[in-house]
Amino acid sequence: MLDQYPLNALQVLLNKAKTYKLDMREKNFFDTASRKYYENPTTELLSFFLNPLEVHNLNTLFFNGLIDCIAKNVNKDPATFGEFISVETEVCTLDGKRIDLIIETALLHKDFITI
To answer: Residue 56: what are its φ and ψ, rounded to 5°?
Structure first.
């Protein structure tokens, strides 16, 4: 069967195939999930890293980084978003829909006494 095709025609075909090779891209945060194209594993991964009580030992580093990015984007002080309270996934709404990820925060006001 190989004898049916001239060698230079096969070389042209191989060279053309090389042009379709995908370039390697940099791995990103979402590539670390087991099924990159599924929504739930990505949400679970975010939930894990946002929760300072998880075993990743990052404390609030991930949460603070997210808040810093959001604050910078909307030109606000990160303190206006409050301190981490909890994170939940797949929360049902009253009309039966689901919210993927809820991050609960609270502003912790401290009164200072000046002497």
So the answer is: -70, -15
Q: Is the pLDDT of residue 35 over 70?
A: no
The alpha carbon dihedral of 58, 60, 67, 40 has a sign of positive
The residue among 42, 19, 49 whose CA lies nearest residue 90 is 42
CA distance 98 to 66: 22
pLDDT band per the 50, 70, 90 thresholds, residue 20: confident
CB 46 within 8 A of CB 59: no
pLDDT digits (tens, 9 = 90+) for 87-105: 999 899 999 988 889 999 8
Band of residue 52 on the pLDDT scale cut at 50, 70, 90: very high
What is the distance between the alpha carbons of residues 7 and 15, in angstroms, rounded to a whole number?
Answer: 12
**47 vs 44: CA distance, rounded Å:** 5
Sign, CA torsion 58/46/62/91: negative
CA distance 49 to 88: 12
